[in-house]
Amino acid sequence: MGNVPSAVKHCLSYQQLLREHLWIGDSVAGALDPAQESSQLSGLPEYVKIVEVGPRDGLQNEKVIVPTDKKIEFINQLSQTGLSVIEVTSFVSSRWIPQMADHTEVMKGIRQYPGIRYPVLTPNLQGFHRAVAAGATEISVFGAASESFSKKNINCSIEESMERFEEVVKSARHMNIPARGYVSCALGCPCEGSVTPQKVTEVSKRLYGMGCYEISLGDTIGVGTPGSMKKLLESVMKEIPPRALAVHCHDTYGQALANILTALQMGINVVDSAVSGLGGCPYAKGASGNVATEDLIYMLNGLGLNTGVNLYKVMEAGDFICKAVNKTTNSKVAQASFSA
Amino acid sequence: MLSEAGLPVVEATSFVSPKWVPQMADHAEVLKGIQKFPGINYPVLTPNFKGYQAAVAAGAKEVAIFGAASELFTRKNINCSIDESLQRFDEILKAAQAASIPVRGYVSCVLGCPYEGKISPAKVAEVAKKLYSMGCYEISLGDTIGVGTPGIMRDMLSAVMHEVPVAALAVHCHDTYGQALANTLMALQMGVSVVDSSVAGLGGCPYAQGASGNLATEDLVYMLTGLGVHTGVNLQKLLEAGAFICQALNRKTSSKVAQATCKL
To answer: Residues in domain Pyruvate carboxyltransferase (chain A) (predicted)?
Structure first.
């Protein structure tokens, strides 16, 4: 647009621009610049908890197997960014997900900083016991709102999977270990196509009822748009309080941030994301996967919302892991900032 | 191909000197050469009166002029103040009015400037109001370096909408920081119903090497379709046009929808 010459000199360096003018940099918990308040949208939560799923959901969809020591270093770096929840690994059989074969070593190897939570995925009781033995103090279980997806992914019906998870969550509760529930295909399924909000609500309610403290609604193939997100949340919020809900948006069709904005406007204040937008999509070769934590933080900072997370440090961790998986970042903020 | 995709407005070229923008050197041939489908507008950029005359001679039926909400940006770019830059367009507007040629006004740097940093919504409103009162039928508000976020978009639009009716407003969001679609959604929520975008997300950012540029039309159409908003655009044909131009430019698409669907 406009008549922009191809060579531009003397403009602010991007780092300077971001630091001094556009609300990025160290975000100090609770300290909001009064000048920023005007950019706060009314009706938005004051604080947003970011659940970093890069080391698990991100890496599990990356082809390059990252050595254990690099995974540990990556997670340790993330621990120093201000993130309060970092999903470490998955206690799943290495037959299914080779990237997570070193789950025990990673869990044992990371430095667990006080005040930060390190949940792990536990698909069954066996995985749960292994996780606990390795030092896990929070777990997650993974359901789906689609029968076909459930059968294809974990080889059983939704009902059977719920029975399995009941065992896990019950054991977790006995040991005072919090359990988070995921519902995948919340806005669409690669097998079935559209998924009704009612079905998602039913599965979510089941997981919440069995004792999961939080339900993360996942747009697994990124097909959702703000309209379908709104309908979904309207349905689920009839049964589950918004403070117990999270959104996990994939950016396969570029809709993630718009969908997240919609969720925030509806009162959700927990958002899953992956640094560098790690992880592709196993259902659309070449497509992108998770929403990038950097781009999410950029939006939240701009909205004047508190996250406690330092964007620069996240970008550094992103740079580290991209080198480890030998790929360029999927984060637009990182692309714009590092190449300036 | 873009015309066949059902887009109602396709900005064809820019009647700017090839010294500045070599890619647009063939502006006259392009405008004369394209098939002009009935019902579709083909505006062209006219940075000065000479360009305007050349555009009209080449058959242009709609033109676009541009201002900026930043004094420093204007000075660096075209070596004059905002007021002086708008005065230069007076000639074009008078001639266009006499010839019944609609003129669209662009305002750049509405959510941030690579030189000044923060831009006040009041300044954007002032420039938008000037262009509108000079006779522009529509004002396209451009987040030139893509730094905006939904709250800033809302503040800016609130200020502008005091001076220019929302029906005459458009947003032109760049996706440099991945915020374009969220910002566009905010604009729609505020009543804006005209959105600029570029197939395949063409164009980078001259201010951040390697960064992305325009919002990809495919991704925008995907969202609008999902929202049940009518656009008249055929996404499949749009994807084909995107694939075509990416091949011509020997580059990958910046559209996520294109990336996802092409490989299925």
So the answer is: 48-315
Q: Quick one: A335 exposed, middle or buried, by C-beta within 10 A (0-12, 13-18, 19+)? A: buried
The count of other CB atoms within 10 Å of the CB of residue A178 is 17
Task: Please report the number of interchain residue pairs, chain A to chain B, with beta-carbon separation below 8 angstroms.
Answer: 195
Q: What CA–CA distance (Å, rounded) separates B261 from A256?
A: 16
User: In sequence order, which residues have a C-beta less than 8 Å from that of residue A96 and are 6 or more positions away?
Assistant: none
Q: Which of B177, B207, B218, B229 to mutate to test the interface with A (most CBs of A within 10 A)?
A: B177
- Respond yes or no: is residue B205 known to be catalytic: yes
Taking each helix axis as running N to C, give the angle between helix A158-174 and helix A125-133, from 0 to 180 degrees, rounded to the nearest 10: 30
Cα–Cα distance for residue pair B95/B64, rounded to 1 Å: 13
Helix H or strand E encompassing A140: strand A139-144
pLDDT tens-place string over residues A164-201: 999 999 999 999 999 999 999 999 998 899 999 999 99
- What residues does A215 pair with on adjacent strands? A181, A245
The burial class, CB within 10 Å (0-12 / 13-18 / 19+), for A80 is middle
Restricting to A residues 110-129, those with a Cβ less than 8 Å away from any Cβ of B are: none
Question: Is A322 within 8 Å of A329 (Cβ atoms)?
Answer: yes
Q: Which residues of A are known to be catalytic?
A: 281
Token pair 């606990």: residue: A132
Bridge partners, A216 (sequence order):
A182, A246
